[in-house]
Amino acid sequence: MTDTQNEMAAIVAEQAERLFAGAVSRERLEAADGGPFDTQLWTEVQQMGLPLALLAETEGGIGLALGQAFGLARRAAAHALQLPLGETMIVAALTSTPAEAPATLALAKDDGALPSVAWGGDAAQVLVADAQGWQLVDAADVSTSERRNLAGEPRCDLTRVAEQGRSVAVPDWLSADTDSPVEALRAVGALLRSVQISGALGRAVELAVRHATERQQFGRPLSKFQAIQHMLAVATEESAAVWAVSDAAAEGWGRPGFVLRAAMAKSRAGLATGRVAAIVHQIHAAMGFTREHELHFTTRRLFSWREEFGSDALWDEWIGRRVCAAGGAALWPQLVASTTAHATGEDAA
Amino acid sequence: MQQFEFTGAVLPPAAEAARGSIRAFLAEEVAAARFQPHRCTWSSFDSGFSQRLGAAGFIGITWPEEYGGQSASSLTRFVITEEILAAGSPCGAHWIADRQSGPQILRHGSERAKREILPRIARGECYFGIGMSEPGAGSDLAAVRTRAEKVEGGWSISGQKIWTTNAHHVHYMIVLARTGERGESRHEGLTQFVVDMQTPGIEVRGIRDMAGNHEFNEVFFDNCFVPDDMVLGAEGDGWALVTGELAFERSGPDRFLSDYQLLVGLIDAVGPAPDRLQAVEIGRMVAELASLRRMSTSIAGMLGRGEQPVVPAAIVKDLGTGFEQALPEVARRLVDCEPSLGAEGPFAEALAETVLRAPSFSLRGGTREILRSMIARGIGLR
Questions:
Q1: Looking at the structure, do residues A191 and A250 belong to the same domain, yes or no?
Q2: Per the CB < 8 Å rule, is A317 touching B279?
Q3: What CA–CA distance (Å, rounded) separates B371 from B382?
Q4: B108: distance to nearest CA of chain A, Å?
Q5: Does residue A81 register a pLDDT over 70?
Q6: A60 to chain B, closest Cα gap in Å
Q7: Strand partners, A160
Q8: Which of A57, A77, B82, B321 lies in the 20 to 30 Å Cα band around B351?
Q9: Strands ordered across the beta sheet of A154-160
Q10: How many domains does chain A have?
């Protein structure tokens, strides 16, 4: 990364933060919760160029470094942004196309069904993975049956109504790790959800720390009770662990070994979600259990995201089978290779 | 959003080169059957191993050449350390000297202390014990009562230390003693001393741990003389010094790799075709380990930049010891094997060693409760 690129990344991050902080209000989150797509907000996100963050400059994108691009998805998740920004960013990068309309990822079942596709009814294009490969499909070529996840975000069951679709090559760095086009795209989605979970965990802990500092019982703030302090220390640890392991996964984008990094991140993110959600809700007590309080925008997303693109249990099993097949002695070098940082400027994507 | 970020640390080529060398060294040790990986931890005392390691240039490497070091980066040291631990080697003899006592002498010791002691540590010939805890001063370290009185040419120490690992083998201890009034903060009037274990007036009594091992000791000091140039820092600076020493003690990969060989043994005991429960549980432990290794590398990077990552180190130690303690619990549910120290096979032995050692993981180097209070302070709750 040159200084100019870093400066630009910092400006993009700052602009995005300002947009999310201002525009992702409680009113708009409530309106989107089970409600229509926030077209106006998408236009603002698009005008800022955020959907093109991960796409290389030579392909018409902004070409941020990996950490910076996925940092935007993390930031958006911290604000519970009710839009498929991460999905669109990824589709643009994987199809090498500067398309800024909402896009999403779909994993086909063995029978061809495309269940629970994020914003499947709002996306202009869907990157579909099935046993044969990947295809970029237009919204006009799918029919949609809408459902919602636990956070009230659209998750749609799609059915392809026409054969049309632009074939997209699974990149070498993914096919090096897995023969399955579905597994390859699942890993990509797992990275995205891990990064989003990290942002949401950071937000959840922030809210709980604030509440503990403000709320008084027995004549003093909750934060002065050692039991509360230790709970928040644990939540901080868990959140930090997910940040670290999802950073490692984001860095792995564009290189062989990515799938294992994404698997580890999604596994750790799922584990931390249960632990952190339990703590932050306990600290917020009855207030945090209501729709009046803002905590649920974050924790309901956490409960949804940990299941998507492979639950922690699915990826645990994937890692466990692979590790056992390779034998005990092979684990250490594998662990070193999949957690060591790559130098900035050596992004291989 | 997240107060403590663990930025990835890129390992320089020298660190990766060192990985190759230390792996070759350890492979030769294993090939020659000089140690049994599944029975060793970083408190296992084996001076032969430490001397061979020192002769090969793997101890004290971050120190300047004039004190026996190689001016290598802390990331190179990190790589060597993690490889030594992952291999399950008996690195306990020199471990404390390399990890904390040597760095403490380098930063705060007299010229004589640096010249006489550091090169011997780097050769793997000189070992240290920790003289912090006392019967009345555990987590509440500021309550130490061991006293040092000023005498002609030095100090005279009297009092008692406890839980000093390998005190019966080591050449020196760094002793925290009271040299003045506690003050309102309770942290004043403390000083650290480098005490030669050959000095008259020292008595070491062993304490067997619950596994039956003799690693712990009580150490009694009765008018034990320490020359002026074996004082660390200035008189009264002991609290700041001991806090810095604990940061070295807490920050390394020894806080999640203590029982790594049990994980290796578990994977081999389960075999190449695990059932779903085995695969899920092992996968989860591996993912947890990945997050720990990533965070630990990041801390090595912070140390290399001259930062003092006190709270991040507490975070990794608390998460790490939690992982180490969970590992035998997971292992015993996945493999039907009764832990045994007898000749029941390596897995049964490793399981037994770990089950019996695990309670200590979240005690040594700062209890879980102390670490969580430090983290709470770090996020502004105290």
A1: yes
A2: yes
A3: 13
A4: 32
A5: yes
A6: 29
A7: A142
A8: B82
A9: A114-118, A154-160, A142-148
A10: 3
Q: Sort out which chain B residues have CB atoms less than 8 A from A247's CB and list them.
A: 6-8, 294
Does the residue A70 lie in any domain?
A: yes
How would you classify the pairing of strands A142-148 and A154-160?
A: antiparallel
Rounded-to-integer distance, Cα A222 and Cα A202, Å: 20
Asked whether A87 and A42 are in contact (CB, 8 A), the reply is no
How far is residue B169's CA from residue B48's CA, in Å, rounded to a whole number?
13
Select from B380, B278, B366 the least CA-distant residue to A320.
Answer: B278
Q: Can you give the CATH number for the domain in which B348 is found?
A: 1.20.140.10
pLDDT tens-digit profile of A171-191? 999 999 999 999 999 999 999
Alpha helices by DSSP H, listed for chain A, are 3-23, 26-32, 39-47, 66-78, 85-95, 172-175, 181-214, 226-251, 258-288, 295-305, 312-326, 328-339
B164 with B131: CB under 8 angstroms? yes
Is the model's pLDDT at B109 over the cut of 50? Answer: yes
Strand positions, DSSP E, B94-201: 128-131, 147-151, 154-162, 172-178, 190-196
- Residue in B101, B115, B120 with CA at minimum distance from that of residue B193: B101
pLDDT-derived band at A347 (thresholds 50, 70, 90) equals: very low
Give the CA-trace dihedral at A313, A318, A319, A323, to 10 degrees.
140
Burial of A109 (C-beta count, 10 Å sphere; 0-12/13-18/19+): exposed
A39: its two tokens: 């077209």
Nearest CA in chain A to B79: A336
Structure confidence at residue A1 as a pLDDT band (50, 70, 90): low
- Same domain for B108 and B225, yes or no, is no
Candidate list B249, B324, B349, B353, residue with the active-site label:
B249
Residue in A98, A97, A106 with CA at minimum distance from that of residue A134:
A106
Domain boundary among B101, B126, B151: B126
* Neighbouring residues of A294: CB distance < 8 A, sequence distance ≥ 6: A26, A207
The order of strands in the sheet holding A103-107 is A103-107, A125-130, A133-138, A166-168
If asked whether residues B286 and B354 sit together in one domain, one would say yes
Instruction: For chain A, give the number of residues.
Output: 349
Contacts for A2 with CB less than 8 Å, ≥ 6 apart: none
Q: Tell me if A18 is assigned to some domain.
A: yes
Q: What is residue B193's three-state secondary structure?
A: strand
CB contact under 8 A, A78 and B380: no
| Domain-located, residue B118 | yes
**Closest-CA residue to B79 (of B7, B14, B1, B15):** B15
Q: Kindly state whether residue A346 falls inside one of the protein's structural domains.
A: no
CB A188 within 8 A of CB A70: no
Write out pLDDT tens, residues A89-116.
999 999 999 989 999 999 999 999 999 9
